[in-house]
């Protein structure tokens, strides 16, 4: 068995910056969320590939919350770093920020976490571990561990509610919701 390798997070930090142009807008005149998601996927791929040395595919995305709108003419930067390493996957943390180049105001618009799986010849491959060199890197790694635990909890909980012992459980839980049950 090959000895496991480790790499510092700073070696794979990646930034992609792009000017937001009119063709990127939605019907409300703001930059379309899908444009930002596409950019986030690209920076996650680049960051993951720099760490693993392999082609990487997106396995999952944890929460994409649009905190602030992005306007035409702003520069949008995607700041990515590997926050966690599993056996064949890495979690890439992405901070998205827009910059109004006229006023130099920088606004945090999104944070998200992409799980990327390393592949070679259509098979998953082991990834290098992560060397944590700062308190921030340690905190990010620990937070990723906690998100992993919560994801498992949610998967188990959703499996449980998909097969309730009694449909009355659904009805009781939905009494205060904005719906009517007609059966």
TrEMBL record:
Signal peptide: none
Domain HotDog ACOT-type: 10-122
Record has Coiled coil as a keyword: no
Keywords: Hydrolase
Cited SUPFAM superfamilies: Thioesterase/thiol ester dehydrase-isomerase
Pfam families registered for this protein in UniProt: 4HBT
CDD domains: BFIT_BACH
InterPro entries in the cross-refs: Cytosol_ACT, HOTDOG_ACOT, HotDog_dom_sf, Thioestr_dom
Transmembrane segment boundaries: none
Family membership: Belongs to the acyl coenzyme A hydrolase family.
Entry protein name: Acyl-CoA thioesterase
Organism: Mucilaginibacter gynuensis
UniProt lineage: Bacteria, Pseudomonadati, Bacteroidota, Sphingobacteriia, Sphingobacteriales
């Amino acid at each position: 068995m090959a000895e496991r390798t480790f790499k510092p997070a700073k070696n794979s930090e990646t930034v992609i910056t792009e000017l937001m142009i009119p063709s990127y807008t939605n019907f409300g005149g703001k930059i379309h969320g899908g444009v930002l998601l596409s950019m986030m996927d690209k920076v996650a791929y680049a960051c993951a590939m720099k760490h693993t040395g392999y082609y990487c595919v997106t396995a999952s995305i944890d929460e994409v919350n649009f905190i602030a709108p992005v306007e035409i003419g702003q520069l949008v930067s995607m700041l990515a770093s590997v926050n966690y390493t599993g056996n064949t996957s890495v979690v890439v943390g992405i901070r998205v920020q827009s910059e109004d180049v006229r006023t130099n105001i920088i606004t945090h618009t999104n944070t998200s976490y992409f799980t990327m799986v390393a592949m070679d010849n259509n098979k998953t491959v082991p990834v290098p571990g992560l060397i944590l060199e700062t308190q921030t890197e340690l905190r990010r790694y620990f937070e990723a561990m906690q998100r992993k635990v919560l994801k498992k909890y949610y998967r188990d909980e959703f499996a449980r509610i998909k097969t309730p012992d009694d449909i009355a459980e659904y009805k009781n839980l939905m009494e205060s919701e904005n719906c009517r049950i007609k059966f």
